[in-house]
Fold each of these.
Amino acid sequence: MDAAIFGLIVADLIAEPMDLRNPPKPGGLALLNSLSLTTGGNVCNTGVAMAKLGARVAVAGMVGDDVLGRAVVEKLKSSGLDTSAIFTSKTAQTSATVVAVEPGGERVFFHTPGPTPQLDLDAFRRCFPIFGKCAWMQVGYFGLLPTLTPHLAEGLKEFRSTSPGTKVALDTVNPPADAKLLWPILAQVDLFAPSRTEATALTGERIPKKMVAAFREHMPQGLIAVKLDSEGCYLDDGKEAVFAPAYKVKVVDTTGAGDTWFGGLLVALRKQMPLKQAAQFANRAAADCCTALGASTGVKSFDETLARIW
């Protein structure tokens, strides 16, 4: 199997357009073009994007014993994902987010964590069998796994000792958790890919090359990437550093673009693309994501994505 994605499984309620700068008066009403229920979080966004790009993916995490949880799991199954490592909480509702999409495509999130605090080291260990069947295992997000994060370095070290053939990727969120928690984790990671905002918060640096240098003090080997929003991305594998510009598209919704970028990069790495081409492929997948409402709707097939990179 190509990858296992562990972390947040979220039911997203997408409202668009939601003009938060000019809200209705108290008791007032504002009309929307659409209000839709879809999947969110790194598990769903990255997993579905990778599946659409032709990868074989398992997803791992926790949902509540409720209609939202059942709907999300069914959506993941219908997308061709292995859901055998999704567990059900009897005490918490499914994690859910209201995604307020502003007229220009930017979004704001209103979130309830649901069972996310129950994703502890024991829950992580329960997923080792499925992780060990995969070439890559991604954990997300550093910053939104409060119970697991203090023990994640220990858990990754334990997993790597049993499954040395599986590479580990780490995704983060804005704002990330305290950098002091990150440093021991990075020693167990093969791919770390924060956004520019997240990298600045963690290192205090603003130039990608200097960000990478700061991370290299704790992650001497592996691939470090910095997502540069509308500018593109910067990748450094310790031997080569590349910059790839973003693709210009008509933005409809940026929800899930960062997760899709990560999924595109993992697919490119599995295909053993050169570093520059891998960066271009990830940028193309993320750009396509922004052209439709929802986190994965705009993602194309592998062949169509590859044919449009430059």
Amino acid sequence: MTRRVRLWVLAAGLLATAALYAAACTQLPGFGGSWHPYGDRAVRAALQQRTANTVSSVNFDLRAFDTLGEESVLFASVLGTVVLLRRTRDEKRVAPEPVRVPAALRRYGRLMLPVTLLIGLYVIAHGQLSPGGGFQGGVVAATSLHLLYIAVDYPALERFRPLGLYELADGAGEAAYVLLGAAGLIAGSAYLANVLPLGTFNTLSSGGTVPLLNAAVGIEVTSAVVVLLAHFLAQALEIEGEREEDRSA
């Protein structure tokens, strides 16, 4: 295909996209109004599915397949990082230099670690009831573990961070979301359809599959962030390449 033909194909695609965008804009509500058709429908659907948090209803019910894509992007990113940052034959591990942490910072970090972890788990568990969910709570939970690195030292983080288990949990969280979607197919509906009992509104067991999908995302995000930071920290603190004089020798 010549350059001129490729440009014509690109121009045709851009024109078609512009036409679809212009047609969609004609159906938008007026600026500054208090009524929005998508928002009203989303709230109505959330109440019908007994999910108190409309955002979680959208993420894990109305467009749960899109959320699977977002989770898979993070999973693939971590997998790619692990492959790219793996230790090569001309690299070796060295013990990181000890860092002296002020006593006040050490005490504050130890105090805030369980508090931050509890907040992260709370945000994950209550994602279908209040703002937050698996994505936000997973980042908070993963951050709590790394307070050991900030307030104590790197060896302390390594001792309390079984990396192999987190790598396994990362894959398990991704697999759980995929397999939960099959419940809709087994029930004779669509993939990722909300087919479980909806429970009582505004309780932890409400929303059908929403809390389960939310928990799967929380596990995957927490583990993914831990694994990602583990490889970045190892690359920055432990991995050392061969020096020029070693190579020449």
Amino acid sequence: MSWLDEGALFSQIGAFLSEDLGRGDITTQACVKRNAHARGRFVAKEPMTVAGLEAAESVFATLDSQQQLESFVSDGEEIEAGKVIARTNGFADVLLAGERLALNLLQRLSGIATLTRQFVRAVEGTNAAVVDTRKTTPGLRMLEKYAVQAAGGRNHRFGLDDGVLIKDNHIALAGGVGAAVRRAKDSVGHLHKIEVEVSKENDLREAIEEGADILLLDNLSPEETARLVSVARGLAPAVLLESSGGITLENVRAYAEAGVDLISVGALTHSARAVDISFKIQPG
């Protein structure tokens, strides 16, 4: 299900276009006749999982409200190289002005979706879900988290106001795991769950004793993760367990088989490679 905020999306697209266009596309103005028509096609140059079609369409629609994108695939769909992803017809200056931004967004978001799908496939058959983090590109968080979701991943908290996650620096400043959990529970009330980062058995036990709802097992080996999962399940069978830190495609399944419920992977958004997509324009 798409949860993109259309108002926020168009606002962002407007800012992105302003950055790129400045006072106008002087190359197109110099070379292309006014009111000339053209048609364009987005073509996949490599296998990928697609994401960002709505963002790409919004680029052209912001430049010309009558401009639409005809898509031949859906976000979250896996395609092979050579597949025509979408096409559009309209004023040539609109297609040329929006070409780079539409491609940047489609390539970036499809890259995130492609990497996410690889992680999701790697843990198939286990009880673990792959989730993203706040390690996103400033200004693109909504779109990047959408791409993760479109590919079968799940979203962690969207921002600092979205959930309580007590990490090592909070613990150091609060005076310990127990003190941090108690203060959080007293402050945020009963509607918010409390997640706390732990890497030692003593901290895990203290967090559970103080009523933490979720434990983030950070920067542990799969073997140590499995051991702490066993300890946690024995103390609180319902506690939610998450692994984070050093997760790769090569080891993600080992963490899933260690028994955690969630595996957060910063690489989904901070290290995904933009996939290769072309936009070919012809006279219309």
Amino acid sequence: MSTDMMISATGINKHYGKFAAVSDVSFEVPRRQVCAFLGPNGAGKSTTMKILTGYLAPTSGRVTIAGFDMERERLKGSERIGYLPENGPLYSEMTPESAINYMARARGLNANQRRERTAFVVDKCDLAEVWHKPIYKLSRGFRQRVGMAQALIHDPDVLILDEPTSGLDPNQLVGIRQLIRDLGQNKTVLLSTHILHEVEVLCDRVILINQGRLVFDGSTSELNATQGLEGSFHRLTGFQPVA
């Protein structure tokens, strides 16, 4: 595996009894690429992302993050990941300040690193106006930005983002999309989204799964070339729009 291949999934399967949530999925994502991970609801996207992060163990198959085997070297691999799960849990009684400081300490950052990285995420995630408010009082959009800040605090090489723009208003979308673009210049970003316009403006590449199986892996322009992103998504997922 190339040293620049930051995410590698080989033949991953996840079974729950007789139900196959993920079936023989393989792909690689290099450094400096923003890759969309698409599929209809229930296709296995979130399950696959949890397997990549080490949160779930696959039934079979192998995952490496930055060269670390996530079965044998999960802690080392996890140090290189920033993960924003869909509807990521937050301690609602904390403020963004206390939550980010807690996460920075948990990630092992020293005092200088905490100051530097905290200043970065407050600026990039636009949290200054709510920095001292309890999280339970924040809007869905601000809570999502706190989750993004937690994923970024330790300056990870790999970002795995499940619906990162969920709940953001149009102004907030502009800032987070620009942040993802900027991060993709040096990092690996794998993001799940249902917003196809977001794929078009953010992503170099698309991985699409349906019913737990890989059905497309190629450039965004290739997916867009014939029927547009929406038409290609419908075709590859077997959906027949009503005329």
